[in-house]
Design brief:
By secondary structure, this protein is mainly alpha-helical. It has one domain. It has 4 helices and no strands. α2 packs antiparallel against α3, α2 runs parallel beside α4 and α3 runs antiparallel to α4. The longest helix has 38 residues.
């Protein structure tokens, strides 16, 4: 369960310490790829907490979501529209939904442990 989060933190650290600069023309695509990665990782953590994680769904979800978002951004560039914002909004909603679920689940586990400890001592 913690492996995806460790990978995310390691990737962020490498990205911050790396001297690579992203060309201005690729900023939209990079932002969408980052959001797709965060969405996929948090979705994987949520699936693991729900005991329904499947690596095939995890990997295919990342690839398909990132590809569709990139195609949407590319189509928007061709039409002169900011269609990438649709992907940004969709990923953002899913990220906040997954973070909320993970937070509630972890707090539920914590409070159950505290209650068990109280019941065992009292």
């Amino acid at each position: 369960m913690w492996l995806p989060l460790i990978g995310l933190l390691l990737g962020i650290l490498i990205g911050l310490l790396s001297p690579v600069e992203i060309p201005l023309g690729y900023v939209k695509y990079t932002a969408i790829a980052i959001l797709a990665a965060i969405d996929t990782i948090l979705g994987g953590v949520r699936a693991q907490l729900e005991a329904r994680f499947d690596l095939t769904i995890f990997l295919s979800g990342f690839i398909i979501n990132a590809a569709f978002a990139a195609l949407l951004a590319g189509l928007g560039d061709l039409l002169g529209l900011d269609l990438y914002l649709g992907a940004v909004i969709a990923f953002s909603i899913r990220i906040f939904d997954n973070v909320g679920f993970i937070r509630r689940d972890l707090l539920d586990v914590y409070f159950r442990r505290v209650k068990r400890a109280r019941d065992a001592t009292g």
